[in-house]
Automatic annotation (TrEMBL):
It catalyses: D-glucose 6-phosphate + NADP(+) = 6-phospho-D-glucono-1,5-lactone + NADPH + H(+). NADP(+) binds at R46, K146. This is Glucose-6-phosphate 1-dehydrogenase. Catalyzes the oxidation of glucose 6-phosphate to 6-phosphogluconolactone. Residues 187-483 form the Glucose-6-phosphate dehydrogenase C-terminal domain. The gene is zwf. One of its GO terms (molecular function) is glucose-6-phosphate dehydrogenase activity. Its EC number is 1.1.1.49. HAMAP family: G6PD. Keywords: Carbohydrate metabolism, Glucose metabolism, NADP, Oxidoreductase. PROSITE patterns: G6P_DEHYDROGENASE (PS00069). GO terms for biological process: glucose metabolic process; pentose-phosphate shunt, oxidative branch. GO terms for cellular component: cytosol. Residues 9-185 form the Glucose-6-phosphate dehydrogenase NAD-binding domain.
Length: 486
């Protein structure tokens, strides 16, 4: 279905995010006929070039990031036709603003989205200049890319600056994990099935694991990454959002504030990790030279061209101090240059209280629900079954498997496709509210401070491994192990 007419302005229009994610997402929405004829896309950046050059840049990016069979000449021509470019240093009030005003002429009735795909330190100035140029119309929304700030104080400052210009309901803080199909399906799995929710608590769940493993290194983003590190880059946003969706109480409906009201309770119930317990509850790591799929890859410091103590891997034992989750650890783990790219959430159930089969039948393995976020999205439930045969009773844990690719033959839209259209629709339910960002930073800041106070170094791990040995020990100490360690 078509969304209402819009003008989409992307600041940072020639940047990596815009070319790699935003333009391909909009292209696919074009291909699916979701964009009305009068909707316009305007790229803004400091690069001094014209619309033709920008269109050529986008064509090249699409060729790189969209599979060739999805690029249709007619669709591409239609898509490029709605794109214009404005060379502008948006952090300065003077300059080419009249060109942007002109590009947005006669668009006052449409949804007008300003997507700030820039560093958060520029958000305040850009918003002020948007206002100064008198570009705010009734259906204006502003989209803020993560990370918002680098700690609670700087995030607050950014939110204050943006909040001085836009109302909270106009501000869309994006976390693209919330737009992933498999992440949205988590809510359907929990609240659309009677089966799981009665078991979804400390009564039946032993622990939860969330892993996001990436094969890539820092990919030309070393400047940003070295200041951020894995904790700020991945945990503060994506992981805490996933944790919230696993741990939150059922909202009474899916309206924006119902979901966000439940998520914020989880964030506020996270037990702080301070200098006393950072060593026992967190692991920091940094990749060294190693090999992935037989190919040698450089270490982080070599890629960066300098030595650094920034973590490219982090593992955390988190705890949610509330009635539902008391005593259930949430083990979080993410790293760059892992052996393979995969993300999953593992719900490890407790063992049955008594083994009626006797030892000879084989070990009784506790049930485990694995929600595979990427790749090969799906759900897998390990259950005990009898091995067929006339002999004695023998038991084995086998998977009940749901593969989305096999069940649904459709293409899986990228997270940004859904989220960009939500910004046009003005639906913020899959975006972060200010208090969520604030509570997430409060928890992260304590860990950062703990690391600093305890002088916790980033332990080396070879590229292509599952991180430092301490990550395995984090679970082994609790008599548990990571799912992939089986
Ligand atoms: C981004 C991080 O938010 O998420 C990147 O900044 C990371 O460092 C990326 O690679 C991972 O996203 P995805 O969708 O590929 O899992």
């Amino acid at each position: 279905m078509q969304v209402n007419p819009f003008d989409y302005v992307v600041f940072g229009g020639t940047g990596d995010l815009a070319l790699r994610k935003l333009m391909p997402a909009l292209y696919y929405r074009e291909r699916d006929h979701q964009l009305t004829d009068d909707s316009r896309i305007i790229g803004v950046s400091r690069t001094d070039q014209n619309t033709e050059a920008f269109r050529a840049q986008i064509t090249k990016a699409l060729e790189q990031f969209v599979p060739a069979e999805d690029i249709e000449a007619g669709v591409l021509a239609r898509f490029l036709g709605r794109i214009t470019y404005v060379p502008l240093d948006a952090t300065k009030p003077a300059g080419n603003w009249p060109l942007l005003v002109d590009a947005l002429k006669d668009g006052g009735e449409k949804a007008r989205v300003f997507y700030l795909a820039t560093s958060p330190v520029l958000f305040g100035a850009i918003c002020r200049n948007i206002k100064e140029a008198d570009l705010i119309c009734p259906k204006t929304r502003v989209v803020l890319e993560k990370p918002i700030g680098k700690d609670q104080a700087s995030a607050n400052a950014v939110n204050n600056e943006v909040g001085a210009i836009f109302k909270e309901e106009q501000i869309f803080r994006i976390d693209h994990y919330l737009g992933k199909e498999s992440v949205q399906n988590l809510m359907v799995l929990r609240f659309g099935n009677a089966l799981f929710e009665p078991l979804w608590s400390a009564n039946y769940i032993d622990h939860v694991q969330i892993t996001v493993a990436e094969k890539v290194g820092v990919e030309g983003r070393a400047d940003y990454y070295d200041k951020a590190g894995a904790l700020r880059d991945m945990v503060q946003n994506h992981f805490l959002q996933l944790l919230c969706l696993v741990a939150m109480e059922p909202p009474s409906s899916l309206t924006e504030d119902m979901i966000r009201n439940e998520k914020i309770k989880v964030l506020r119930a996270l037990r702080p990790i301070t200098a006393q317990d950072v060593k026992s509850r967190t692991v920091r790591g940094q990749y060294r030279q190693g090999a992935i799929e037989g190919k040698s890859v450089a270490g982080y410091a070599e890629e960066l061209g300098a030595s650094s103590n920034t973590e490219t891997f982090v593992a955390i034992k988190a705890e949610v101090d509330n009635w539902r989750w008391g005593g259930v650890p949430f083990y979080l783990r993410t790293g760059k240059r892992m052996p393979t790219r995969y993300s999953e959430i593992v719900i490890q159930f407790k063992a049955v209280p008594h083994n009626v089969f006797g030892r000879g039948a084989g070990e009784l393995t506790a049930n485990r629900l694995v929600i595979r976020l990427q790749p090969d999205e799906g759900v897998n439930l390990q259950i005990m079954t009898k091995v067929p045969g006339p002999g004695g009773l023998r038991l084995r844990s086998v998977p009940l498997n749901l593969s989305y690719a096999e069940t649904f033959k459709d293409r899986y839209p990228d997270a940004y496709e859904r989220l960009l259209m939500d910004t046009v629709r003005g639906n913020p339910s899959l975006f972060m509210r200010r208090d969520e960002v604030d509570a997430a930073w409060a928890w992260i800041d304590t860990i950062q401070k703990g690391w600093k106070d305890a002088d916790q170094p980033a332990e080396p791990y070879p590229a292509g491994s599952w991180g430092p040995l301490s990550a395995a020990l984090l679970l082994a100490r609790d008599d548990r192990r990571w799912n992939d360690a089986d």
